[in-house]
Each structure stands twice: as C-alpha cells, then as structure tokens.
Amino acid sequence: MNTRKVALVAILTALSVGTNYAMMSIPNVKFMDFIVFVGGFCLGSFLGGLVGVLSWAVYGVLNPLGFSLGVWLATMFSEAIYGVAGGFMRKMLKKSVLESLRSSRINLGIFFGVVAVFLTLAYDIITTIVFWYAVPFTARSQTLLAVIIFGVPFTIAHLISNAVFFSIGSVPAINVISKVIRGGEKSGNE
Per the structure, how many domains does the chain have? Predict the structure, then answer.
C-alpha cells in the first residue's frame, strides 16, 4: 500500500466523520455511506471496508446521541459493507462495461443509486435487529413492533438520501479519487 492510499483512507475517514457531525440535525441523512462506498470502489474492498470501520469507530464512540456497545459494533461492521461492496462493484464491472457506462454518466448514476438502495436496506435491517436486541430481554416482545413502526420513516429517509447521493455523486467522486491514485502511480511516489 502506497502513501497516497494511506492518506486517502485517512482523508475519507475524516471526511466521513466530519460530515456526519455536520449533518447531525438531519436524522439518517448522511454522506458517510456514500464516502465509504466510493472509497471501496477506488481503493478496493479491504481499504473501503477499513474506511467504514474506522469512521464508525470514531463517530460511534464520540456520538452525541449516546453509546451502546452492541449497536456501535453493529454499525461499525455494517458500515464496512458499503466499502466492501464498492470494491466488489469495481471488480464485478468489466472494464469495457465500466467504460461504456462511464460514457453515459446518467446510466452509471442510476446504477449506483440502485446499488445504494440494496446496501442501505441491508445496513438498516442489520442495525435495526441489533438495536432491538440491545433492548432488555423482558421488554423485547413489547418493543419489536415499535422499533419496526418508528424505524420506517428513518429507513425511508436513509434509502432516499443514499439513492440521491450515490446517483449524483459517485461518478464525479470516483473520477477525482481515481486521478489522485493514478497520479501517485505515474510519478512513482510510494
């Protein structure tokens, strides 16, 4: 791993955490998932997943909304799903398919928006189950329906915002980060 990639992991993690604090007043509308996905797409699954884990490792411990160990661990490792999926998407898309999609930014944006919906559903299902499981055992039967019902608006906000962020921002962000990475390879700086 070269110094540019290490720096990008640190920058993407800081950007992810910083934007989460900046958008704290808007529930479930954050750039974190988008940043982690783009990081995975550009840096690979391992480093993208690392950006996700590190982002929640910091944000979850210093979360003004409170701390719960189980929920923190679930969100930290569930966030890594975005980075791993980003790296997987890059490998899955053959270079010729990626280039043809890239020539039509709208198609690629729509594709990334659809990917965002599925990833966000997986993230929200996992974290909601863990949140419910963190409720004391004696209250779980009474809280299941409440967690599901009251969680729906938050999930909808999360799904819509991620679909928009991924659709509009993925292509430009991937292009910029890819240029930074290629710049390091061309100059031979490690």
Answer: 1
